[in-house]
Amino acid sequence: MDVCAQSHQTIRILVDDRESRSPVLDALKDRDGVDVQVRRLPVGDYLIDDRFLFERKTLIDLTISIKDGRLFSQGMRLAGSPLRTALILEGTSKDLAASQMRREAIQGALVSLTLFLGIPLLRAMDPRETARLMLYAARQGRQFETGAYPRKGRRARGKTRLQNHILQGLPGIGPRRAKRLLERFGSIEAVVTADPGELAEIEGIGEVTAAAIRWAVQEAAGYFLLDDDECLPI
Question: What is the spatial distance between Cα 2 and Cα 143, in angstroms, rounded to a whole number?
């Protein structure tokens, strides 16, 4: 099958049932060549072709998730997925007018998600553009699969490097401890759900660091440092 034929095959999309009232779902259903099903997803909002996992947030959703502490835990789960993941931020600056959240706090959150958790960030003006972005990603993904685009490096090696990088965002975890955690637990998900006692058994971690890790993944992720040395909890 040639590249053009494959790119026009039906695109399979699973939508988390908590997005069932989203206008993005309506926009996807309006497109030809798209098979949409709604069900509960353990991670993310939209699973495309069993290859791409997208978390969608309006700008207002983003500020709320920063304030209530959900953003970092959601980001950790997304970053720990074996799929290619991305966060789509939807809306315009006007949507933030009533949020009363400082620009520096939002920037701090995005730095954590993109640079430290390694989650790509995409921007969309409205729900229809969000739908177009995801479908465009699906079609490009099929072109990559057929060799239409060059691919650099080896996926497995890149994933291991990313996992180590993500774990180093936890309190008291450097490169060596991150490597030991992965060798012991096998995945980021297993690390962040492990009991403090299990974590403390890892060489170089102990009870104090284990407790700090559990605090970070169960409650707020920490603090974003603003430009005037004010700390905003998330």
Answer: 10
**pLDDT tens, 41-76?**
999 999 999 999 999 999 999 999 988 888 888 888
Cα 193 to its chain centre, rounded Å, is: 17
Q: Quick one: DSSP state of residue 63?
A: H
Nearest to 182 by CA among 193, 197, 167: 167
| Residue 44 backbone class (left: φ over 0; alpha: ψ -120 to 50; beta: rest) | left
The pTM of the full predicted model, rounded to 2 decimals, is 0.64
Rg of the chain on CA atoms, in Å:
19
173-185 confidence digits (pLDDT tens) = 888 888 899 888 8
Annotation: CATH topology of 3-145:
Rossmann fold (3.40.50)
* Correct CATH for 155-224 of 3.40.50.1370, 1.10.150.20, 3.90.380.10, 3.90.1150.10: 1.10.150.20
Secondary structure class of 108 (helix, strand, coil): helix
